[in-house]
Amino acid sequence: MMKTTCLAVVLQSVAKKLADLSAKGVTTIIGGGDSVAAVEKVGVASAMSHISTGGGASLELLEGKELPGVLALDEATPVAV
């Protein structure tokens, strides 16, 4: 129980700090289901610049790695609708 309570306090503090930074113009990116759930629970999800449930794929994209799906979109021929 103690570990869970401490973790909740830390997550709440981090989420609020990210919201404060976002309000100051800092780009804040939340990636992964657990992180998304945490900022939603604290009530600051709408303050974030971007939220992705991509998790590992989001991290790889931020690291500059090439993702097959993104590459395919980059190479796709635009279609008029």
Automatic annotation (TrEMBL):
Pathway: Carbohydrate biosynthesis; Calvin cycle. Keywords: ATP-binding, Kinase, Magnesium, Nucleotide-binding, Transferase. One of its GO terms (cellular component) is cytosol. GO terms for biological process: gluconeogenesis; glycolytic process. It holds the Pfam family PGK. Belongs to the phosphoglycerate kinase family. This is Phosphoglycerate kinase. It comes from Linum trigynum. The lineage of its organism: Eukaryota, Viridiplantae, Streptophyta, Embryophyta, Tracheophyta.
